[in-house]
């Protein structure tokens, strides 16, 4: 009858593992950031290069979230409410960005948008549009890696909600847009919110793909994550830690927000 | 956060097959599908296809030479090996953690749940700094794994922590307690019930989490960059190798190694799809 | 006696599920625990199985004090309302489970599984998964699984509750026949009085955590000890200040000795029977009588006519108890209790 003893052991194994792997290291980063007082931190966030990097991250994240939300909601509805040839394939492919290395993502964008021999790159260059080593490439890379996140959150919710309400709305005379706006969208709002929040976190945090496509030019094409790496290599640890802490803080707030939203959603709609 | 396999397939009905129509698209939805697929192709499919194309365009001999280059081969083997070990660790730890989250209750359990999701949301470069702080040269507890294989293992373990846990958790939650009671009433002890009834029921979810965990580890870059030292033949992973080729202007070689990784990703996706069907079939 | 229950008490927080239950379950018989939902019968069954622990009292199985024993040591077979099938195992593996746990030799297991599958008519499904079976088939599998280990006692918790009416009726008869073949002491929980009356050798009526009456189907139906039991077991109506069965009231179109003169208020044809509601001329409680069509046609009365009602000789009549709880009307979807207020 060691089941009670084992339960205790399990609990402590889990706690210790997570504490040593995640909790302690993360806390240490915050500790190191504030170890030398507030001055270095203020210095960091008044540095124009840093601010530029943060701005670039914000722009990329904005477009990524916008495009992926539009795409995500559309594809989710198509996958759940309709039948069409190749549906199963699309469903599987949509998960692709989650399993692909960010470096490979970057490589693929470089190959396609290269001005010498790139499938899209050459014609775009002739049209005077620069993609690589500039903001558009960063947006593309960020959008690529965060693509599946909205879909994975919305699809299960759509499935659970079912078509009854939508059919009722149709029978009462609502057209597609009205049904979507008044019935479908409110029904999926919590799943959609989680998805958007996760997409945002992922977009802010993207590193490898952006490194490849941006050329990593200081002050011009550096995102916050790239800046962290560069500052660390330049032995400017304080600044690196400051930015890292900010990014860590944002992602942790994201998770807490998701967690709270989930509890809210479950409390409101008991199954 | 949903890491459980997402299924959009119908369950096979036992009393006569329900006819699934070939297509229920309307004009509007058909157009939407067309635009969505076009966008998806431009953003994802075509670039990835170009990678494979570039790899093969250099000719098969060059493809093969790239892969068997000692440094590249070492990187591939290191990556697959460490990813495999970490996945095995995750299968055990992830399942244990899921059990603790679902079947145990203690003050701070909520906090544990939140911490588990941190690696999923944290920027990878920040993860690298995070690990470097406690397990690098300036470690306050004297553990320094920088520039060793263990650093690779550690980074992989960090970023893949949530995958098995989150895949198993919902399934464990939904498990019918009466099934375990049935096993008890038939004479099974707690341990027997766990191994003969509960774990087999969780197996597809564990496998799905393991697949995602493996794929994630194999693709990892940012968290390794600072702590592993990227030492050729020792602690260099495939992502770093590809980047080296890119920075050296060797597009075809980079594409070759990338193609290998893509194949791994595709295998994972196929495996996940098959697992979804398995779960659906069991009902 | 197979099972002795002594002084069992069980509460969930402030809710008293069982209060001082004393009961003996006869060996080899089919006993029904009958009562409304939430009355405590499932709780009692689970306490016998060891799936719940009582707050106080004892459970003896075959003379052995089983109160502190875990379920796996009690050798009781349990069948759940929602089957509790092992979804990842085939039908054959499900049935074999208990034997494999006991480490019986493979040949013995195979033989026994074949025997049981034949008994429950599932032989051709032995390699299927539970998800490929219908509800009724799954429940038969669950029964075979429980019987495989030759339990001392077989316990069934609303076994047919999740099935359609038609399947439920079939399985009811089938369970009775199975019991006649196998003779294991069986206890089953149900809220369906028709089921209990049809299948059981003995009925224990339980409500609000207390035993109301124990007896054979005839006993509890014809000689209920209180209004609750009477109302729960079958339709009732109020007549001459007592609660009686609607078909125990004789109707006459002219005066006879001992009959009460009333006015026919309403006549309702329901299938093959006729429900005649009669009451005093002034305001007062009405009585609803159930007659056969033939008898009604013979009488020739209609609404507004004078009728004379008399209780049939030997029929049971129970004093209404104003403080007793009413059976929940939602448990009586066919409206079989044609009770009028009182």
Describe this protein with a few key phrases:
heterotrimer; A: 271 residues; mainly alpha; MetI-like fold; 14 helices; C: 342 residues; alpha+beta; six-stranded mixed beta sheet; five-stranded antiparallel beta sheet; 17 strands; 27% helix; 30% strand; elongated; disordered C terminus
Characterize the structure shown.
The complex is a heterotrimer of chains A (271), B (283) and C (342). By secondary structure, chain A is an all-alpha fold. Chain A has a single domain, classed as MetI-like fold. Helices cover 80% and strands 0% of the residues of chain A. The longest helix of chain A is centred in the first third of the chain and has 34 residues, at 48-81. Chain A is globular. Chain A starts with a helix and ends with a helix. The mean pLDDT of chain A is 88. Chain B has 283 residues and is an all-alpha fold. Chain B has a domain at 72-237: MetI-like fold (Orthogonal Bundle). Chain B is globular, with a radius of gyration of 22 Å. Mean pLDDT of chain B is 87; it is low at 9-16. By secondary structure, chain C is α+β, with helices and mostly antiparallel strands. Chain C has a six-stranded mixed sheet, sandwiched between helices. In chain C, strands 13-17-14-15-16 form a five-stranded antiparallel sheet. In chain C, a hairpin with a 2-residue loop joins strand 9 and strand 10 (210-215). In chain C, helix 3 packs across helix 4. Chain C has nine helices and 17 strands. Mean pLDDT of chain C is 89; it is low at 331-342. The longest helix of chain C has 18 residues, at 165-182. Chains A and B meet through helix 1, helix 3, helix 4, helix 5 and helix 6 of A and helix 1, helix 3, helix 4, helix 5 and helix 6 of B.
């Amino acid at each position: 009858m060691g089941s009670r003893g084992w339960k205790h052991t399990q609990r402590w194994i889990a706690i210790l593992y997570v504490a040593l792997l995640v909790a302690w290291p993360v806390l240490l980063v915050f500790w190191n950031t504030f170890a030398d007082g507030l001055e270095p931190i203020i210095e960091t966030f008044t540095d124009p290069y840093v601010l530029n990097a943060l701005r670039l991250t914000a722009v990329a994240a904005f477009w990524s979230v916008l495009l992926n939300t539009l795409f995500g909601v559309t594809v989710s509805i198509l996958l759940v409410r309709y039948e069409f040839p190749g549906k199963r394939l699309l469903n599987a492919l949509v998960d692709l960005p989650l399993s692909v290395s960010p470096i490979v993502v970057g490589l693929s964008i470089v190959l396609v948008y290269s001005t010498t021999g790139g499938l899209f790159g050459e014609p775009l260059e002739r049209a005077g549009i620069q993609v690589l080593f500039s903001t558009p490439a960063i947006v593309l890379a960020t959008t690529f890696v965060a693509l599946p996140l909205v879909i994975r959150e919305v699809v299960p919710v759509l499935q659970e909600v079912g078509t009854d309400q939508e059919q009722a709305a149709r029978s009462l005379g609502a057209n597609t847009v009205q049904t979507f706006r008044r019935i479908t969208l409110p029904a999926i709002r919590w799943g959609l919110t989680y998805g958007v929040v996760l997409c945002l976190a992922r977009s802010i945090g993207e590193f490898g793909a952006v490194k490849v496509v941006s050329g990593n030019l200081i002050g011009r094409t550096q995102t916050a994550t790239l800046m962290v790496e560069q500052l660390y290599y330049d032995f400017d640890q304080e600044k690196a830690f400051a930015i890292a802490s900010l990014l860590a803080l944002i992602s942790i707030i994201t998770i807490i927000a998701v967690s709270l939203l989930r509890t809210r959603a479950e409390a409101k709609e008991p199954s | 956060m949903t890491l459980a396999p997402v299924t959009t397939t119908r369950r096979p009905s036992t009393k006569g097959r329900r006819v699934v129509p070939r297509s229920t698209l309307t004009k509007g939805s058909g157009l939407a599908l067309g635009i969505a697929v076009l966008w998806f192709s431009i953003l994802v499919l075509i670039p990835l296809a170009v990678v494979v194309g570039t790899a093969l365009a250099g000719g098969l001999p060059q493809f093969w030479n790239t892969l068997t280059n000692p440094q590249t081969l070492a990187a591939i083997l290191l990556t697959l090996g460490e990813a495999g070990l970490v996945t095995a660790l995750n299968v055990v730890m992830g399942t244990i953690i899921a059990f603790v989250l679902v079947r145990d209750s203690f003050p701070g359990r909520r906090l544990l749940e939140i911490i588990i999701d941190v690696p999923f949301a944290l920027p990878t470069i920040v993860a690298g700094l995070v690990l470097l702080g406690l397990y690098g040269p300036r470690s306050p507890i004297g553990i320094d794994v920088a520039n060793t294989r263990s650093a690779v293992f550690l980074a992989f373990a960090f970023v893949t922590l949530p995958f098995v846990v989150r895949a198993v958790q919902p399934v464990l939650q939904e498990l019918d307690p009466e099934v375990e009671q049935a096993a008890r009433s038939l004479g099974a002890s707690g341990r027997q019930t766990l191994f003969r009834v509960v774990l087999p029921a969780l197996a597809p979810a564990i496998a799905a989490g393991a697949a995602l965990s493996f794929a994630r580890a194999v693709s990892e870059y940012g968290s390794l960059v600072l702590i592993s030292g990227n030492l050729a033949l020792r602690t260099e992973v495939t992502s770093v190798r590809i980047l080296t080729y890119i920075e050296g202007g060797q597009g075809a070689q980079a594409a070759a190694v990338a193609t290998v990784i893509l194949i791994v990703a595709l295998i994972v996706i196929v495996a996940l799809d098959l697992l979804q069907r398995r779960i659906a079939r069991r009902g | 006696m197979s099972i002795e229950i002594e002084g069992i008490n069980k509460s969930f927080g402030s809710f008293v599920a069982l209060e001082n239950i004393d009961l003996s379950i006869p060996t080899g018989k089919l006993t029904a625990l009958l009562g409304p939902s939430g009355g405590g019968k499932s709780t009692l069954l689970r306490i016998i199985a060891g799936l719940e622990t009582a707050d106080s009292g004892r459970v003896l199985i075959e003379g052995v004090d089983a109160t502190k024993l875990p379920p796996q040591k009690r050798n009781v077979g349990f069948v759940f309302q929602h089957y509790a099938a092992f979804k990842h195992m085939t039908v054959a593996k499900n049935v074999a489970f208990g034997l494999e746990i006991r480490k019986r030799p493979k040949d013995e297991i195979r033989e026994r599984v074949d025997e049981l599958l034949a008994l429950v008519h599932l032989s051709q499904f032995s390699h299927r998964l539970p998800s490929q079976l219908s509800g009724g088939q799954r429940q038969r599998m669950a029964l075979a699984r429980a019987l495989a280990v030759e339990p001392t006692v077989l316990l069934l918790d609303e076994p047919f509750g999740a099935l359609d009416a038609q399947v439920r009726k079939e399985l009811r008869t089938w369970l009775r026949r199975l019991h006649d073949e196998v003779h294991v002491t069986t206890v089953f929980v149900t809220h369906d009085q028709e089921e209990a009356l049809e299948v059981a050798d003995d009925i224990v009526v339980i409500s609000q955590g207390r035993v109301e009456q124990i007896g054979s189907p005839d006993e509890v139906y014809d000689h209920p000890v209180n209004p609750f039991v009477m109302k729960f077991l079958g339709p009732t109506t109020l007549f001459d200040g007592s609660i009686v069965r609607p078909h125990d009231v004789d109707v006459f179109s002219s005066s006879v000795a001992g009959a009460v003169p009333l006015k026919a208020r309403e006549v309702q044809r329901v299938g093959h029977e006729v429900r005649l509601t009669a009451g005093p001329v002034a305001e007062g409680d009405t009585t609803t009588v159930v007659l056969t069509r033939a008898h009604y046609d013979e009488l020739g009365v209609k609404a507004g006519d004078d009728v004379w009602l008399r209780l049939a000789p030997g029929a049971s009549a129970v004093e209404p108890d104003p403080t007793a709880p009413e059976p929940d009307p939602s448990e009586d979807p066919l409206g079989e209790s044609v009770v009028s207020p009182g």
